[in-house]
Each structure stands twice: as C-alpha cells, then as structure tokens.
Amino acid sequence: MIAYISYADPPSMAAFTTSSTFSPPPSGGGGGTDDFNYDAAWYGNIQYLLNISAVGAFTCLLIFVFVKLRSDHRRMPGPTAIASKLLAAWHATGREIARHCGADAAQFLLIEGGSSALLLFLAFLALAVMLPLNIHAGKAPMADQFSKTTINHIEKGSPLLWIHFIFVVIVVVLVHYGISEIQERLKITRLRDGYGNPSGPVTNSSTIFTIMVQGVPKTLGFDKTPLVDYFQHKYPGKVYRVVVPMDLCALDDLATELVKVREDISKLVSRIESRGYLNEEEEDDNDSVNGWGLFERLRFLWRKAKDIWYRVVDQLGFSDEERLRKLQELRADLEMEMASYKEGRARGAGVAFVVFKDVFTANKAVQDLRNEKRRRYGRFFSVVELQLQRNQWKVERAPLATDIYWNHLGSTKFSLRLRRVLVNTCLLLMLLFCSSPLAVISAIQSAGRIINAEAMDHAQMWLNWVQGSSWLATIIFQFLPNVLIFVSMYIVIPSVLSYLSKFERHLTVSGEQRAALLKMVCFFLVNLILL
C-alpha cells in the first residue's frame, strides 16, 4: 500500500517522502545520496533474487534429505544406497506408494506431479515462443532489461499482441485439459479399504461387485419388487441383492427439527412454571407493599406490567400456552413421520445399489445400462421401464460405503443445482473482486479516499511517521503485508473454497474433494496468470 501511494504521487512528492521518512538506500559507489545509481543497486536485482532463492531451496532440500535418511537408517548411508533409494522411489507406482505410505500420499504425489508437468510444459512454451518474441520483436524504449522480456516491450496497437492473446487461449485450453486428466486419475483412489488405502480388484470388498443407480422412483422405498424383478430378468442368476435406501436427507432434517422442537418445549415449560411460581410470590407479598422501599416498589410495578402484558398477549392468542400447544402438535406430527421410517414405510432416496455375484457381471451391467441410454433415441420403453423411470437413470460403479455421505441421499436435483449455482456465483464474485489481497487493499484505499480524502492523508502521514520512528516498526510494516497475503491466500481462501464445496452437498467425500481441488486450482490459476 505504501509503495502504491509513492508511485502514484508526483515526482516531487515522492522525493519528499523518500528523503523525509525513509533512510537512504545503500550506495554502490561510496558517494552521497544525490549521485546514487539506482540501476546498479544490488538489492532487488532479478539475478540476485534468483540466486538467493536457488541457494535457499537447495539448502532446505539437503537438510531434509540428510535428516530424513539419518532418521530412517540411524546412520548416514553411502552414495550407492542413496542412489538406489532414489531410483526405487522414482520407479514406484501409485498403488505401491498408497500401500506403503497411504492413499493421501499417492493423491498428493499425483496432484503435484501433474501440476509440475503442466507448469513445466507451459514454461517451455513461454521460453520457446513468447520470450524471443518479447525480446526481439518489441520496439518500445525501455532501460530495464527485465521489462524487455515482458509484454511491455511490445508497442501499443502492434499486431503482435494477438500472438499473446492466442497464447493465453492455448494456455487456458491446456490447463483445462490438464486439470481434467488429474481429476480423472484421482478416481483411481476412490475405492478405499478400512485403512484408507485404494481397493484393488483382488481385495475382498463388496464395492467391486456393486453398481449405483441414481434416478429411480422414490416410491420404491415402499416396495422394491419391480426393480428386483427387472434386474433378475436382465441378469438371471447373477443378482445377489438390491438395496434401496430411504430418504436419509429428509430423515436427517426430520431428526434435527424434532430435537429442536423438543428443546423449545422444555424451555417453554420451564418458563411457564417459573412464571407461575413468581405469581404465587406476588400474591404473598401484596399485603406488605407499604413497608417496601423504592427499589422493591419498582420491582413490584415491573411485575405488574409484565402480568398485564401476558394477559394482553393471551387475549390476542399469542400466549406461551398457545405456543406450547402448537409445538406439542408439531412434535406429534414429527414423531409420526419418524415412526414411518422405523416401520419401513418412508419414501426412498431415489438411489439403488445392485450387488452382483461376480465382477464381470457388474462391469457388464454398467456398460449395458449406459449404452442402452445412449441408443434409446427413436425407440420405445417397456411398461416396466417407464414405471422405473429408466430414461432418468445414471449408472456408475458404487463408491465405498465409507466414502458416501449417507445423510445426503435423497437431495432433490433442483436443490443441488440451486446450491451449485449459488456456489459458482460466489466463486465468480471472489475471482472478480477478492482474487488478490492487494486488489482488495487498493479498492478499500480508493473507497476511503472517495469518502474522506483528508482522513486518508492523515493515516498515510501517521504510517510514514511510524515507519521512520524505530527499526522495529519498519520491520513489522515490511513483513506485515507478506504475512497478510500468506494468511489470506493459503489459509482463508482454501478454507472458504472447502466450505463452498461442502455446501454443494456432494454424494461422496471424494467428489467433494475433487470439487474443492478444482475450485482451488481455478482460483489460483486466475490469480497467478490473469492477475
């Protein structure tokens, strides 16, 4: 914010601010501050920053490698052992990494490897195409060597700017393709066992024999016989079991509302009983009003006013007794609905799980049902298929039971679409207005200057005085913007995006994680590339 104001001010004001509030920068030639060569300064130079970053990263890598090897082997292994260990880690497959280190490690390496490969490919394109274009085709006069490598070196109105536009379009297409590939490969770790590791085809899990059918009628919760007969006729002798869960989303909402109503009834009963006890005390104290002081008389008048208010509310039909009666009726209705779930008379969730006796039939059922839906144009459905709403089915391999949000089973398509529209709208607003903390600070500063420019000038003068008053304040204000950016970009924003993904009510945990990952990647790509 300080740097932005100093650049925006006139040159005379900038010189005054620099000379009056900040100490002069270190001189390269040993002279005074008037003949200081800012272009030859060692600090802020891109070569210096790259060298320092490379040395720091290499040092951290060496410390991690040697400390990790020493803790693993209790002694430092030789070069041959280190080379063999690195080669073994390089040739390890995702399933082997998941078996030894867990599925989260495999997912992390898959995301990091895919992101690194995508960024390296984009960097190669930028160095091979855009860097020579900016250096050799640019004609804008510039003294800074680093600026000559950017788009600023190309003159305004030049047709070469269209090459930059086409390059950005290519980058967007490649990034979308890369994200889609990473998301598809993450589905490998969707099937997990009880320890969180991926379930292979040889694992003893019922998930590999099960398919999930979404879009079945909710009336099958009463009687699933038509669906069972349909699959038995289509795959005779191959169906082990058909499970049609109840509308667990409505059950969860019903249980939450019932608990709330019971709590409200208990609070209301306590309030009515306490009010009756106070009325009895008032009747006992009516005879001794003459001996009271001022405070006791005020309390007595306050009780009388409350009693009159309760009587007026009672006459209007808004008394606590009337509210208690309505809450008790609501509790009775909710308990009757809860009893229908206990007796198995509730509506279904619109989802069915079909368990087959072998993996081959499960895979064949998924392919058959998907292909039949694609080839149904111009054909007729049978009466049974019309009753089962066959044209609305969405068939896929069933996720693991621990991966399913069971309380989300039964959510309507309209509510899910409405939630996703709201989330995407919120994400778009975040990308437009809150994608960069610096943009937010600049917007707040501009709004403050429009509202009260004099107060902003006083605040700027106070900040300059604080920065020049002591070395501790200078250090704090030097690193505080970086800390705020770090906290907002890597703690606040990912938490908000994760909460938005939870608000969408995905059916599975893995689907929610994929949605959160996609939102984070889109957010940071827009923040880094476009801004």
From TrEMBL:
The keyword Kinase does not apply. The keyword Aminoacyl-tRNA synthetase does not apply. Keywords: Calcium, Ion channel, Ion transport, Membrane, Transmembrane, Transmembrane helix, Transport. It comes from Nicotiana tabacum (Common tobacco). It is a multi-pass membrane protein. One of its GO terms (molecular function) is calcium-activated cation channel activity. One of its GO terms (cellular component) is plasma membrane. Belongs to the CSC1 (TC 1.A.17) family. Coiled coil: none annotated. It is found in: Membrane. This is Hyperosmolality-gated Ca2+ permeable channel 4.1-like.
